[in-house]
Amino acid sequence: MNRRAKKSSSVTSRDVAARAGVSLMTVSRTLRTPDLVSPATRQKVETAARELKYVPDLAAGALSSKRSGHVAVLLPSLRHSGFLRTVDGLSDTLRANGYHLLIGDCYYSPEEQTELLRLILGRRPEAIVLVSSMDSPEARELLDQAAIPIVETWDWPSDPADMVVGFSQYEAGYALSESLIELGYCNIGFLGGPAHTDPYGEQRRKGHVAALEKAGLRADIHVTVSDTPMEIQDGVTGVSSLRRRFPETDALVCATDMTALGALTECQRRGWQVPGELAIAGYGNFDFAPHLTPALTSVKLPSYRMGKQAAELIVAQIDNGTQPADASRNLGFEIIHRQSTQP
Amino acid sequence: MNRRAKKSSSVTSRDVAARAGVSLMTVSRTLRTPDLVSPATRQKVETAARELKYVPDLAAGALSSKRSGHVAVLLPSLRHSGFLRTVDGLSDTLRANGYHLLIGDCYYSPEEQTELLRLILGRRPEAIVLVSSMDSPEARELLDQAAIPIVETWDWPSDPADMVVGFSQYEAGYALSESLIELGYCNIGFLGGPAHTDPYGEQRRKGHVAALEKAGLRADIHVTVSDTPMEIQDGVTGVSSLRRRFPETDALVCATDMTALGALTECQRRGWQVPGELAIAGYGNFDFAPHLTPALTSVKLPSYRMGKQAAELIVAQIDNGTQPADASRNLGFEIIHRQSTQP
DNA sequence: AACTGCCATGTTAACGCTATCATCGCATAT
DNA sequence: ATATGCGATGATAGCGTTAACATGGCAGTT
What we know:
homodimer, alpha/beta, 12 strands, 15% strand
């Protein structure tokens, strides 16, 4: 069962044309603009194409028409399920409009991002979606020269490159901690990754700090965990470290629900009451959040919607050639209070 | 800030050649086979390329060289985090070898799969990875004609199309239920999706049934939930339905950890002791499995490794032109017993 | 000095498609 | 009948790159 030649003699539009007794141009037309072809001819071509199992070479078409049919998305990580929802939203809408999605994983590294960007621009994508705040000046230059629509997501940049469909991580951080303050907590800690590898977490932390300072509360309870705070284990070790260094902490905000889960289970293991002794909240409203015991307070983010609307903006701009009026959309977030932060 | 012309006058290798004072062929050579170019010339070309920010058009290169540099992967769903790990493994290895990954989401539907396959074959991928057991005859035909390496994953097909890096869902199903029998459970139920939309779950269930029958136990305790058993809610409603219809059940196998989580929390809510009254186990060993209370027994699947090894097989075959000796790899699985099934 | 061989570079012709313009009928208007 | 217009199809010329072959120059050999 091991055939699969190195390269098959692929069926081309010329083959189909010969079989249908027309010119290859008519084949192209039949497939792309059937209205311009007489029904009889169309019939012949379609039959021939089916019989030969013709699959048009999109790269050739792209080269000729200068439309690659590609849209690229750059992710900080493929492991983060929230980002994946965004990819999902993109994929759904783009496919429905005839585009293919190219996915690039930057491993949370600006160098990787630039390198990958260069590589991916070689595919001449018609638009680029960035889930990633860390664009280096070099990356920015590359994007500028490419002169294609850009949509930034998962953020609310002060100096947007082009379009934006996102929300403010800072505001989310501010709002969550503010609401904890309202609930009466006053020693509120933050558990997140190092600033340079976890930019979103860092922005959330900044908002968190601002809220505490505004309320006149201490803002120095901060535990830094490993590179990308998406590992449950980070929550496990993080909460232990927190309780050792800051035993007076009464509420803990975790950079993601994943770390919150770790923190939660570690508290259970150690017999620390949640929310009695320590309230816990996270970000992302992951699937499991409402199903934990206690149910986890979390900030719901517009993950899927960002992808979907980013795709819609792209399609609209490419089709119309003009940018939609509302090409900067702040989709906000929603704080969902659950048992884990009940005073 | 709205520039971004419809189409920029892209820099081509001809431009670089002119600037460097060489022929465009020398530019191509400098980039692809620098050893064949004298150091002085190479220098000139590289400088010119950098100054002009030249990004080679990979589609044009693909057309000419008949090497697209694309590898495609077809997924039943983008939502399933297990599949994502596989994509991760693919992506890592393929990128390191200069390939781009095209991702297609089939929405658990054979029609979508065939349609998507046709579309994606238009990109002339150099290999295809299938995470998906449902290839229709039509899809099979398309693949045959494409004559490219195929790697099937997440399965152990009896009639493989080409290479395989997977494991047997049936055996996993058999093994898990067998181990529950050994632990002394005798009314073991199964909670999964409908056969036609959840093929993996169905195979697991068949293995499960076989194990029960072998042991002379009843094998009719079966709850069917919604289309894709990846929703926690399915576990919630599923376990209620189970307890109503089969109150004598003492252990429940869920098609995924996601449904197991739902079942677990619903049991807690209702006050049903786990594992006292009902033992619960799942598949996938999701991140949260060891962190639940009780910790969830689960079957660990080689998600990342399948992707990585699939990519390695592909690269090896394309580079060497010959198929590696061990082009069918059963990576097995591992049953991890935890508290949720402790007798 | 003429010959051989090889290295560095250039020239030409695709790759498979689409844009563009040309052509050819045929129906309708004059 | 001739002119006009338009719908359907065909011929041609690229798109930006690489494969394959051609060329030219220079070192080493006899």
